[in-house]
Design brief:
Elements lengths: L3 H55 L5 H7 L8 E7 L4 E3 L18 E6 L2 E10 L12 H50 L14 H50 L6 H29 L9
Antiparallel strand pairs: 1-2, 1-4, 3-4
Helix pairs in contact: 1-3, 3-4, 4-5
Amino acid sequence: MRSLSVKLTLAFLMVGIVGAALVALLVGIRTRVEFDSFVDSQSNLDMAAALAGYYEENGDWANLYEFIRRDSAFRVHDTRMIVVDNNNIVLYGLGPDQDGQPYPFDYTPPSLPIEVNGTTVGQLLVEPDDNYKAPPTQISPEDSFLRNVNIAAAISAGIAGVFALGIGLMLARTLTKPIRELTAVTQTMAEGKLGQQVNVRSRDEIGELAHSFNQMSQDLADASRLRKQMTADIAHDLRTPLTVLRGYTEGLKKGSLGGSEKLFNVMHEEVLLLQHLVEDLRTLSLADAGELKLNKRA
């Protein structure tokens, strides 16, 4: 039979593991979202700064394709980038057929202004490229960072589980100590040693149970004492008339006493007393068995 202490320990352990796993999962998801947002924002700022530097150096957007192809700031494969000038003419991003034409779509993705000396010279439109698939062997620094974060979260969850196990053991032993004491005292009472008491350490449900047990134990001890006293009293009360009857019958048998009416009356009174005591014993036995019927009187 699995003890209550083991059950409580396992319950605390499961709560700790599930809680730690949920925290690790939520931290991992939130970290990825925030980190991806930060990386994308920083990458967009770097591209806008590179475009502004190119325009400031050249004074126009000529040979923009070559610049974007060789500059490291634009090596972001999972992002679709479109560059338009102040007249909304596409300079880069839609392909040879549409570059140099007005931006053709009603929807405009999030954009960053390209500023040179406080003057806006164009817009950088950036949106995720849903068709991009990273090579299986390619691990970006961002993915490596997130992987390390997930590993750290998993290790933290494991450590939290170990702590939950230790705390669960201590709490289980503390919570079940009164119950173990109560069990030991109950076994002692089962051996006939009534009146046993347990220490009441708290005012919660277990404390109420201990208090009720102490009251029950004391009541049982008092009932046992009263039963023994009542048995002794009844034995004494029965002994007196029996002794009288025995003496009279022996005297009659031996002929030392004459059979007078007075003697027979005394013997009859002793028999009635015995009958009354027997009826009292029967009433007590019915009351003890819970079968005594009581009649209400106004």
